[in-house]
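Look at one record.

>
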Amino acid sequence: MTGKMQQTKPERLASWTAAILRIIEDKQVLLRLPAASTHVPALASHRWQLTKAVCNYRWFVKSALAAHARSADHNRQVTALIEAIDDVHEVLRAYVLHWSNGDNAARWPDYQAAASATLDEIARAVRRISADAATLLPDAAPPGNRAVEQRKVLPL
């Protein structure tokens, strides 16, 4: 077995976090280019890559923490993390719905400001969620569980 199936849950969490932050950084670089408004198709591509990564991250965090939700010691913390990841998903969903229609080049100043602010907000939240979730995840999962988790996660 190779790739994500051999990773522990904390390693997979770190991998998903890094993937999201990489997509955000790449999009932020494009947004800052002098002729950025001419790169709207590339920016849209990053928007959809980020959507897929956040959806996979959300699924992973929720499934990885599901066992802890039943523990009285961690229930409140897990509930808060699940609410936080749902909030990130909602911020991204609203952003995608708003900016996926219409001519973003024609609305460039508004699009650039909204995209940058949304990306910053998502990056901060993902860093915080990942740091908190990492404290709850076991170092290794039983091999059978990894195979089930891997089948449900879409590749980036």
In short: The domain at 10-135 is CATH 1.20.120 (Four Helix Bundle (Hemerythrin (Met), subunit A)). The first helix runs from residue 9 to 32. Helices lie at 9-32, 40-69, 75-99, 108-134, 143-152.
